[in-house]
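Action item from last meeting closed. Structure (222 res):
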């Protein structure tokens, strides 16, 4: 499959679905990233872009795209929707992960709304959570017990952001591990990532639209 993860800022994706993305790449699927800003409100933009690319390597992502929007100023308009659609055309994703829409950060909210429009014909769309997400009740879980270290390593690649949590003495790594433990308890595993589904098909579509014809043998009658 092709998997596309979309985030408003560098480190959004790693916090929300980094473990799941690593599991995808380890199983031979192609992972792509789309980051809308360089997160310059929280640091130096060029530094954060480099950190994001380093994190992408840890996750095994095939390619990273940047939207070049100004941090804190992501709009909800036709231009943004078209930019997301352009990346969809390039990557042809079977699965999409994106920020959840109920969030105290306006960039996360606006990106979620724009992505909902842009992905209206995509079969599988899942929303992930972040430290500023509100009222998040997962209905899909991924067991990341075997991928927790890689998730935390990818987050660690965002060196400039690790201590910036606005909670004294608590790093983003500790928050991410606690969140994974909590979602794991909900999902009855040790560590998990939780998602809210916009749409989720349990089985992928046939390759190239080919549906195998099943021929049933006729029963002989006597």
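Sequence:
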């Amino acid at each position: 499959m092709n998997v596309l993860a979309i985030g408003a800022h560098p480190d959004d994706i790693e916090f929300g679905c980094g473990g799941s993305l690593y599991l995808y790449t380890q199983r031979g699927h192609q992972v792509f990233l789309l980051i809308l800003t360089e997160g310059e409100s929280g640091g130096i933009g060029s530094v954060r872009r480099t950190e994001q690319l380093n994190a992408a390597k840890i996750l095994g992502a095939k390619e990273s795209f940047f939207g070049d929007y100004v941090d804190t100023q992501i709009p909800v308009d036709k231009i943004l929707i078209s930019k997301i659609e352009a990346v969809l055309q390039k990557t042809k994703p079977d699965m999409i992960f994106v920020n959840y829409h109920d969030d105290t950060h306006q960039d996360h909210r606006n990106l979620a709304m724009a992505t909902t429009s842009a992905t209206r014909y995509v079969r599988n769309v899942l929303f992930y959570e972040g430290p500023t997400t509100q009222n998040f009740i997962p209905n899909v879980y991924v067991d990341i017990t075997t991928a927790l270290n890689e998730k935390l390593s990818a987050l660690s690649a965002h060196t400039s952001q690790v201590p910036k949590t606005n909670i004294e003495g608590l790093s983003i790594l500790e928050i991410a591990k606690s969140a994974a433990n909590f979602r794991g308890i909900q999902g009855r595993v040790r560590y998990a990532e939780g998602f809210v589904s916009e749409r989720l098909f349990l089985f992928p579509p046939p390759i190239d639209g080919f549906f195998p014809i099943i021929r049933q043998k006729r029963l002989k009658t006597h």
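Note appended to the action item: Residues 2-204 form a domain with the Rossmann fold fold (CATH 3.40.50.10320).
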